[in-house]
Known about the structure:
The complex is a heterodimer of chains A (239) and B (143).
Chain A: H1 2-42, H2 49-78, E1 85-88, H3 89-106, E2 110-114, E3 121-124, H4 126-141, E4 149-155, E5 171-175, H5 186-198, E6 203-210, E7 214-221
Parallel strand pairs in A: 2-4
Antiparallel strand pairs in A: 1-3, 4-5, 5-7, 6-7
Helix pairs in contact in A: 1-2, 1-3, 2-3, 3-4, 4-5
Chain B: E1 4-9, H1 13-25, E2 28-33, H2 36-45, E3 50-54, H3 62-72, E4 78-82, H4 87-95, E5 100-103, H5 108-141
Parallel strand pairs in B: 1-2, 1-3, 3-4, 4-5
Helix pairs in contact in B: 2-3
Amino acid sequence: MRVKSLAFFGALAASVSHELNNVLAIINEHSGLIDDVAEAARHGVAPDPDKLKRISAKISRQIERGKDLIKRLNRFAHSADREVTSFDLNSLLDDIANLTQRIAGLKGIQIVFKPAAAPIAIESNPFCLQQAVFVCFRLFLSASDKNRLVTISAACPPARPGAREAVAGPIIRLSGAALPERSSERETYEYLEMLLEEINGDLQFVSSEIDGQSILIRLSSASGGAGNFSHEGASNGQG
Amino acid sequence: MAKDKVLLVDDNVEFTTALAERMEVRGFSVDTAESGATALDKIKDAAYDAVILDLAMPGMDGIETMKRLLEKQPDLQIILLTGYASVEKGIEAMKLGAVDFLEKPADLKKLVSKVKEARTQKMLLVQKQLEDKITKILREKGW
């Protein structure tokens, strides 16, 4: 399990570093364009202010993209700091969907995240949960289906009076391409189950439903998962 | 004198657009393609002195694209652009027929120099093929 966790960490780090490299490549070419404009000006060609504005806007956009990637990577890296910590499930799923996007993109698949309407405050093991979601993505990516969209959504329905489950809990749903048969990806399915059983803290794994095209993960939370959550104060780690 | 004609293949459109503009300033005629499939279409209609190809692309990746391009035009001079962690892939690509590879972000001076080398290489190949053809005809004629 430790080896697989390291492999997961490595896969995301490698993917993000490639993405950052692409950001730098675009910045590099656009700064080169500014050099070319300056060089032409030296030879009497008047610089076009609109062109310079356009180039500068593109550089700024890439800097923002790079900052966003680094911020998400930093939060992900810190998610392994403590076994149990407070976090917003929406933010966590948004991060893992975003960080996995390049891996999915190379297979021609787009990941879309649909957050719950309100933050879902939970206290658990964020690294384990992210890894479980990543394994779900891997299952979808291994499918040869023509559906090129995988949607991940979070919800936290209130507990029904008299329901079997004593407390409400978040639900994570992934759907999209046809999932591979269990027989062809037995090890991956087993690993997913093992990760879900490992979820701890305030959060407990209740059940998973896997049909041909979707994975539904039901969790229960002692606090109900819909408390007043401070997004700033309870991230997976800072700095 | 005709401009050297280059095809840039990368799914990162902002990158190819800017690089194409910089290469055009340096006297190249540049076409771009967002995917391996588009590159295969483009080589049907134009003769390129060099193809600059990104290794990591969605769908048909750089290696697969290169194999298919070389099947269609075995003399095509392909320079691969790779991320920093894929030098091994770059070497593998050279074994499969790429003439060179560069790490991304590429230094434009190096890239321009490699494209010029590739063009020279292509001219030598064309010249050699022409000489072989002439020799064959002369032999057939008994001269």
